[in-house]
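Predict structure. Chain length: 237.
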Amino acid sequence: MNASASAILKQLKSLGNDRYCSTMKKHGVVETLYGVKIEDMKKILKTTGQDHELALELFDSGVYDAMYLAGLMADSRKMTKTVLRKWLKQAKSPTLFEYTVPWLAAESQHGHALAVEWIDRKNEQQAAAGWATYCSLLSITPDEELDLPEVKQLLKRVEKSIHEVPDRVRYWMNNFVISVGCYVAPLTKNAINTAEKIGKVEVDMGETACKVPDAVSYIQKVEQRGTIGKKRKAARC
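Prediction complete.
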């Protein structure tokens, strides 16, 4: 590990917050954890800028805070399938395998291929990552560049199997329905129809206060705001 990575790790450790650390553990973080708030990570990011090689080192550190920061720091254009697959295997916490890795995958040129690949995995974490990646793809990709027939087929797949899959996959299948309804205007009605058929989605959210959003009401709120089909500039936030 070079001096820059060591210095960042030292800085992250100094910014650790015990209360935030406790909160993140309740959200399933299992890696070594300092408890650095995202707003503080972004302050570090302002000083380093986008540094892909540094990001690779930080992710390999196995420290959760450094791994999350690495996801913000990495250059998605330089992310290869090999690295993205490796990162997904290394990611043990939901925040990493459901957000960090899917965000980067979706922004890379390999987003669709990996989303489809991971969705079919039997491993709960990897399947959840696949659905999460597809959600991000829908949010940033122009409709004319999406495979709409495939999206329709995935909606049917959700309808048939959502109540039979593991918790994290179920959570992201529900989010997929919401993402289709909110970001893909030509399929909003299809998404609402799917949401109505699947009904209430139950997921064990552990010790957190998080709730599973109701897909129908969520999409309808976006309709009322008049922002159906409005794409995001980037997956990462």
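Summary: The CA atoms of residues 196 and 216 lie 7 Å apart.
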